[in-house]
């Protein structure tokens, strides 16, 4: 287990492993971009910022906590550094699909974190006409991730050999949002007539 208060990050490997304990980690190198100094001013305000020179190249490493404020700081950094050569983003102990996808997830998380109840943003009520399975009763259903629901193919199939929860988790990895702190794996529910949600295990959109 990593003790974050004594954490030292000197390599890409260190950052990737440490990212499992944070919202995400970003690595970038010294750049000729006019925005480089702005990026530095952003990361140097973080409690988990590190530098290391490797073969005469200055590397910057930063880890962001799982808070709205830190998500906004990470968004600000990536808005400048996302297209720079050498920029890499890590979350959940692995590399993310891209800095651009990380920005999208950060925006969604920051929006949810600003809400009194994050589920008011995260959870999507799915109308009957979007439910195509013939072997389940009509909905409506509550889909637990607005970001994932934005994709056309929702990848959940009751005929699949893996459980709904495992399918949902695998889909979140493919969509690049599995590291969101608010993601609830497999929390798909059917809305009862009393307007209270009841657990429902299998659904195919």
General description of the model:
The protein has 205 residues and is of the alpha+beta class. The protein has 2 domains: 111 residues, no CATH class; 81 residues, no CATH class. The chain has 7 helices and 9 strands. Strands 2-3-1-4-5 form a 5-stranded antiparallel sheet, sandwiched between helices. α2 packs antiparallel against α3. The longest helix is centred in the middle third of the chain and has 16 residues. The chain starts with 11 loop residues before the first helix and ends in a 6-residue tail after the last strand. The C terminus is likely disordered.
In short:
With 205 residues, the chain is an alpha+beta fold. It is built from 7 helices and 9 strands.
Considering the chains and any ligands shown, give keywords for the structure.
alpha+beta, 32% helix, disordered C terminus, 7 helices, 205 residues, four-stranded antiparallel beta sheet, five-stranded antiparallel beta sheet
